[in-house]
Write a structure and sequence with these properties.
This is DUF6252 family protein. This protein is mostly beta strands. It is built from 1 helix and 21 strands.
């Protein structure tokens, strides 16, 4: 099975502690907040299209490490809401664990999962910043999809999520080694703004290849998907080839455009892209796109 490079980052081990730059700080990267000192907390904001921003606040939360996986379980006993985060021990290029799922269930029983209906790939970001005295601390975000909704393709952004001093039972798994062969990159002009996505990575699994990038200031995220990678021009059809861009909290899905792969050498693909993306609020043009990504 090919490596799945789902973006999660883990810095809980001694050799990885001590974040050295602002852009590497999980709270800054994910716009997470901070709770009262010494408290155990988990909360996350989310915005359902057409509704106001809401906050899930856990009344109880714990974490369990078993084998190669860590699971964080959170619930609000007053409202019946729950949230589960799971990730495995495959390191990605950021020194963090790959493979993971995030699921939120609201008070009415509606389930939002961090799995895109377009690509079947994970959309979440989990970054641990500390593991000490049997607890873990970090931040997370994801795009959640309700497959039972009238329009399941409308992703719900869950953002600024944090968990602090969550009790951990078991031993954190030993990360599998990863040696990044290069620095992935993705750039584009979104509307009138030129964006050099500061964090770029690729996800490779049985469904295909996803090239992703995020930028925090200003807040943008971009995603390109192809079922297969080879040199050539690929027209976006929202099936075998798709794309999306997130501006702030608004997700726009491509309705037309193309991805051109100009070279594939030693497991590295380079190319260009351009597309028109829409949602219920309007249209965004993405032009002058370039990328350099791993396809292994």
């Amino acid at each position: 099975m090919k490596k799945l490079r789902f973006l999660t980052a883990f810095v809980a081990f001694a050799t990885m502690l001590g974040l050295t730059s602002c852009s590497d700080d999980p709270a800054e990267l994910l716009n997470g907040g901070q709770g009262p000192a010494g408290s155990t907390i988990l909360n996350v904001n989310y915005t359902i299209p057409g509704d106001s921003t809401k906050v899930f606040v856990a009344t109880s939360v714990n974490a369990t490490a078993s084998g190669d996986y860590v699971t964080i379980d959170a619930e609000n006993a007053d409202t019946g809401e729950s949230l589960v985060i799971e990730f495995g021990n495959q390191l990605n290029k950021n020194g963090g664990f790959a493979e993971g799922t995030i699921t939120y269930v609201d008070a009415s029983g509606n389930e939002y999962t961090a799995t895109s209906p377009f690509t079947s790939l994970n959309t979440g970001v989990v970054k641990l910043s500390e593991s000490a005295a049997g607890t873990i601390t970090g931040a997370f975000s994801f795009i959640g999809y309700d497959n039972n909704a009238a329009a399941p393709e409308d992703g719900v952004p869950f953002f600024s999520g944090i968990f602090e001093q969550v009790p951990l039972s078991g031993t954190l798994p030993t990360p599998l080694p990863y040696e990044p062969p290069f620095e992935a990159s993705i750039k584009a002009t979104v509307g009138a703004t030129t964006v050099d996505f500061g964090t770029a990575w690729s996800v490779v699994n049985q469904q295909g290849h996803t090239f992703k990038g995020t930028n925090t200031e200003p807040a943008y995220e971009i995603s390109l998907f192809l079922t297969a990678v080879s040199e050539g021009t690929f027209v976006i059809d929202m099936s075998t080839v798709s794309a999306s861009v997130t501006v702030g909290e608004d997700v726009y899905n491509a309705v037309s455009g193309e991805i051109i792969i100009t070279d594939v050498t030693d497991g590295i693909a380079t190319g260009t892209f351009t597309f028109t993306a829409e949602n219920e609020f309007g249209t965004v043009e993405v032009t002058n796109g370039t990328f350099k990504m791993s396809v292994e």
